[in-house]
Amino acid sequence: MSPSRKTEVPPPTRRSPCPVACTLDILGDRWTLLVVRDLMLGRTRFKEFSASPEGIPTNILTDRLERLVRHGIAERIPAAEGSKRLAYQLTEKGEALRPVLKAMKEWGLVWEEGTRAALSDG
Amino acid sequence: MSPSRKTEVPPPTRRSPCPVACTLDILGDRWTLLVVRDLMLGRTRFKEFSASPEGIPTNILTDRLERLVRHGIAERIPAAEGSKRLAYQLTEKGEALRPVLKAMKEWGLVWEEGTRAALSDG
C-alpha cells in the first residue's frame, strides 16, 4: 500500500456550504480530533493512539483512522522500512488543522478548570 | 429568569486533563458549534437557529441550547423588554470560542471544495 496524498471525494452529504458545518461533518465528534492531536504529538501507531489517556475504544479508533484517511487528513505509511505493519501520519491537509487544535487548546486552558496541555505546539 | 454569567460546574466526567479533550467533551458533536456560529452571526431566537440551512432537529436544538447554558457558553435573556419569551446570547466564555470557529472556517474554505463563508468575522 503506497502512501498517497490524494483525497477520495466524500459523498455529497453536506448539510450546507458553510465551511464550519463541512468541517464538523468530518470532525464533529468526541474522538476524531483527539486522534489528530496524537498525530500532531508524533504518535504514529494504532497502539500508541490506543494508549492515550482518554482510552479510545479500539473499534472507534479503527473507524476514525479510516475516516481520517478517507478524507485525506492522514495517510498510511509502513511502520518501518520493509515492515508490513502500518503507521499513520498527517497529510498537508491534516497539518493544516493545527490552528483548530491550538484554538481549542487555548480555550480549554482558559475556560475549563484543571486542564493542562500536553500539546506543546499544537 | 435573570441572565447570569455564572457557570454551573459540570460533573467530573472528563476523559483526561487535556484541554482539547475537555473542549471536545463539551463541543465535540456535529451540532453544538453550529448553534454557537448562529449566535456569533447575531441570531438569538430558537426559531432562528431552527431556520438555519443545516436544518437542526428541534429536539437536538433544545438539548444543545441547554448544554450551552449549562456550560456557561450561552445565557438566556428575555426576547424583548417585558417579554416572557426567551432568547439566547453568548457569554464571555462563548465569545471566546471565536478563534475556534474562525480556524474551522478557514480550514473548511481551503480544504473542502464548494464551501463558502456566511460568518464574516468569526
Structural overview:
By secondary structure, chain A is mainly α. Chain A has a domain at 19-94: Winged helix-like DNA-binding domain superfamily/Winged helix DNA-binding domain (Arc Repressor Mutant, subunit A). Chain A is built from 6 helices and 2 strands, in the order ααααββαα. Chain A has helices at 19-27, 32-40, 46-50, 58-70, 92-95, 98-111; strands spanning 74-78, 86-90. In chain A, strands 1-2 form a two-stranded antiparallel ribbon. In chain A, strand 1 and strand 2 (86-90) form a beta hairpin. The model of chain A is unreliable at 1-6 (pLDDT under 50). At the A-B interface, helix 1, helix 2 and helix 6 of A face helix 1, helix 2 and helix 6 of B.
List the quaternary state of the chains.
homodimer
The gross shape of chain A turns out to be: globular
Q: From N to C, what is the helix and strand string of chain A? A: HHHHEEHH
Question: How far is the first residue's CA from the last residue's CA of chain A?
Answer: 29 Å
Number of strands of chain A: 2
CATH A-level architecture of the domain at 19-94 in chain A: Orthogonal Bundle
Largest interface, with Cβ-Cβ < 8 Å? A-B, 47 and 48 residues
Using the coordinates shown, work out and report the CATH topology of the domain at 19-94 in chain A: Arc Repressor Mutant, subunit A
Q: Any idea what the CATH superfamily of the domain at 19-94 in chain A is called? A: Winged helix-like DNA-binding domain superfamily/Winged helix DNA-binding domain
Low-confidence stretches of chain A: 1-6
